[in-house]
């Protein structure tokens, strides 16, 4: 449990740091951090119960895309401000590194295994984002009168 809390705090600060690098307005740092933390929370929760990296990533990307769209619509900003920053903790950077490492060390079977997993994770992220973007934008308005 303590490990999970530490990871959630780390994901918050990593997401805020990434938002800083992309020149997100300072007043949005907190919301970007929350987006990344929510995504990582769903990832950890599902991975601990199901032990499926790809499925956990898919559901986490759906959750953080929903939160990103909610923040974007209600704060009247582009969704990419929250989505790109929030997706950072889920990106399979280590998988890309190890795939390349195994290629250079001529461990082809490990490279293929890690490469397939990395591509699967990337596709899960893309598919999760796509699933949420087919929902009409008016569904993400809360507490506002719809015209």
Molecular structure report:
- With 147 residues, the chain is mostly helical.
- The chain has one domain (2-89, 124-140).
- Helices cover 76% and strands 0% of the residues.
- The protein has 6 helices and no strands.
- The chain has helices spanning 2-21, 29-50, 53-75, 79-87, 93-104, 108-133.
- Helix 2 crosses helix 4.
Give structural attributes.
147 residues, mainly alpha, 76% helix, 0% strand, globular
Dominant shape: globular
What is the count of DSSP helices, taking H or I runs of 4+ residues? Answer: 6
Total discrete domains: 1
What class, by secondary structure content? mainly alpha
Q: Estimate the strand proportion.
A: under 5%
Intertermini distance: 45 Å
- The helix-strand sequence is HHHHHH
Note poorly predicted spans: none
Main sheet overview: none
Helix content: over 70%
Count the E strands. Answer: 0
Structure summary:
The chain has 147 residues and is an all-alpha fold.
What is the topology?
Layout: H1 2-21, H2 29-50, H3 53-75, H4 79-87, H5 93-104, H6 108-133
Helix pairs in contact: 1-2, 1-4, 2-3, 2-4, 3-4, 3-6, 5-6
């Amino acid at each position: 449990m303590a490990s999970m809390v530490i990871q959630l705090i780390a994901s918050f600060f990593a997401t805020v740091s990434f938002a800083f690098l992309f020149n997100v307005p300072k007043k949005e740092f907190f919301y970007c951090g929350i987006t990344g933390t929510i995504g990582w929370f769903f990832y950890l929760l599902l991975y601990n119960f199901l032990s499926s990296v790809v499925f956990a990533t898919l559901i986490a990307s759906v959750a953080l895309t929903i939160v990103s769209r909610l923040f974007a619509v209600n704060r009247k900003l582009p969704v990419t401000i929250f989505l790109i920053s929030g997706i950072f903790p889920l990106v399979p950077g280590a998988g890309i590194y190890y795939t390349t490492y195994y290629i250079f060390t001529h461990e082809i079977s490990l490279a293929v295994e890690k490469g397939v997993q990395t591509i699967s994770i990337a596709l899960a992220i893309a598919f999760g984002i796509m699933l949420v973007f087919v929902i009409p934008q008016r569904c993400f308005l809360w507490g506002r009168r719809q015209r």
